[in-house]
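User: Structure please.
Assistant: Input sequence and predicted structure:
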Amino acid sequence: MDLEVIRELVVKNDSKIVLLVIDGLGGLPNPETGRSELEEANTIHLDRLAADGLCGMTVPVGLGITPGSGPGHLALFGYDPLKYRVGRGVLEALGIDFDLRKEDLAARGNFCTIDSQGLITDRRAGRISTETCAALCEGLSGIKLPGVQVFVQPVREHRFLLVLRGEGLAEGIADTDPQRLGMPPLPAQAQLPEAEATARLLNDFVAQARKRLADKHPANMLLLRGVSKWPDLPHMGDVFGLNAVAVAVYPMYRGLAKLVGMTVLPTGMAIQDELATVQEHWQDFDFFFIHYKTTDSRGEDGDYDAKVAALEEVDSVIPGIRDLSPDVLMVAGDHSTPSLLAGQSWHSVPFVMWSRWCRTDRAETFDENACRAGGLGTFPATAVLPLALANAQRLTKYGA
């Protein structure tokens, strides 16, 4: 849907919309049981919501395309991720409140583990503590590159932020993360002619960092992803007429929310803390984005049982959200992360919406099979927000 069309149709009222994003929500059947993580989990509250509401499966970017978390969330916020491209580096910078400038180049980094042959054995260095990450970043902050300032900031666990500040820096550089074990880190390769000099700077940084990290097992190397500069996105308030707020723990999702004009609230680490933050600020906003990360992390770890437990944990906050009497309540995922694949995948994602105006369907449980047969069918994730606005009676008629 063209954002200008939506902008023309929007009407404001006092309705309240909640979007709970369960990161990496979708899964695949366990070979031993034939049941996905959602089918295995005891999610009585999500099941009740599915029975009361309208279900379907969302496609974040396109059939067969495995989306990153950035594009997956942008689609749920109503932005076509093929048109509005946002680099992971920018999101990490905004998420930790780094003073990112228009001329800056940002990259999201992972500390990783390599063996004596230089092959990657762990892309996340065993998920080192944030304190260890901070110490490693301090050791890399002394790296000097010609003509630019270098900033290395810890983010969370194995993740860090690299920012280069100077004139003439360019985007269009491939990730150094091969996304596979048993391979060496890739060089930073320019995808555009104007990015050649910037790629050389990044490779210089990586070479110096490798020497400094050589004896820091397990975090004895690093990988760079999402090399990017500040994009220009229209704000949700301007396009959708929403006073939107984000309640999220992980910096990247906080950064993405800021980029589209949401207020970002401080909150605690647990999903119950996030619920308490929503309850405290219920009168202050009309669109609430709540983010839950653990399902994605456990899926990436290939831990089926832990992802099941994470689904049961997030299920516990559904009654508290429903008690607030939102006009529209949606539960979605930015992408699928099946523990069977130990990574993000191209599979469509379960979705449920409840409002007093929505039709119901025959879904009785919240899982892949039930949602696939739901009344919404399989549809683009970019339709989620227009559906919410319609069910909140925030869209007027199109045409005569």
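The chain has two domains: 3-86+233-391, 91-228.
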